[in-house]
Structures are given as C-alpha cells and as structure tokens.
Write a structure and sequence with these properties.
Radius of gyration: 19 Å
Strand content: under 5%
Largest sheet: 2 strands, antiparallel
Low-confidence stretches: 1-17
Structural class: mainly alpha
Number of strands: 2
Helix content: over 70%
Number of helices: 5
C-alpha cells in the first residue's frame, strides 16, 4: 500500500505498528484489562474464599482465620483494580496510574513469594506462582510503557 498503511489479515488498515507488523498495543486498554482481571479475582477471593483458596493452599483454606485473610487479599486486589481504573482516565501525567501499577507489582511479587514459602511445591502452587509472576511482569511492562 503506497499511503503508508498496512493491511492485516482480516482487511483492516492501521498506521505504524511493531517491528513484526502487528498493531501497537493500547497501554490504557491493557491497563484496564489488568485492572478488570484484578477486580474479578479479588471478588472471587472475597465472595468464595474457601473455594478459591483451596486451589492455592489446599485443605488449610477451610479454616475461618484463613478465610478472613483470603477475603482481605481479595479486598486488596479489588482496591488495586479500582484504583488503576480510576487513574487511567484522569491522570494527564500518568503519575497516579504508575503508582497503582507499581503497587500491583509489589502485591503480585508478595503473593508469589508467600506461595513459595508455604511448603512443598505442587502443581497448584506452581500455577499460582506463575500467575503472580505473569501479573508482575505484565505490570512491569505497562509501567515501562507509561514512562
């Protein structure tokens, strides 16, 4: 195409893109997706702490004290997600958004480390560590893209 646009497989045109010819990722859309994921996971932890945490920490999830702690983690993730959503549109210099993303990275790293410290590794815990690591990595990528 001579006008500087490229054609995707399904026929839409766009300008620019990454070196591999793909469309550039919308950082604000990616941030909203991460925030929505955080809110969804947080709500699940808050509403059904035993069921959700059982896949994470096993039979220990059935205790009342564990349920309270898991609900607290759920509330934390909801708060982080809502904060990220609120900061996405109203922050011209993106400072608040960067801080919310950084807080999420710290939370994800703490979740991964705490899971590793629980005891012997198994598939469930490995999955939780992988999810926490991917959340922290994605958050780090977003943080870099925001400057």
């Amino acid at each position: 195409m001579s006008d500087g646009t490229r054609r995707r497989r399904w026929g839409r045109r766009y300008r620019g893109g990454a070196a591999d010819g793909s469309a550039p990722m919308d950082v604000h859309l990616a941030t909203r997706c991460l925030a929505a994921t955080r809110i969804g996971l947080g709500l699940a932890l808050f509403v059904a702490p035993r069921q959700v945490a059982r896949g994470w920490i096993g039979r220990e999830a059935d205790g009342a004290g564990t349920s309270a702690a898991v609900r607290g983690l759920g509330a934390r993730d909801v708060a982080l997600g809502v904060g990220m959503l609120a900061a996405t549109g109203r922050d011209p210099d993106r400072r608040d958004l960067r801080r919310w993303i950084e807080a999420g990275i710290v939370a994800d790293l703490a979740d991964g480390a705490a899971t590793l410290l629980v005891g012997r590794p198994d598939r469930r815990r490995a999955l939780v560590v992988a999810m926490a690591a991917s959340g922290a990595t994605f958050g780090g990528w977003l943080r870099r893209r925001l400057g």
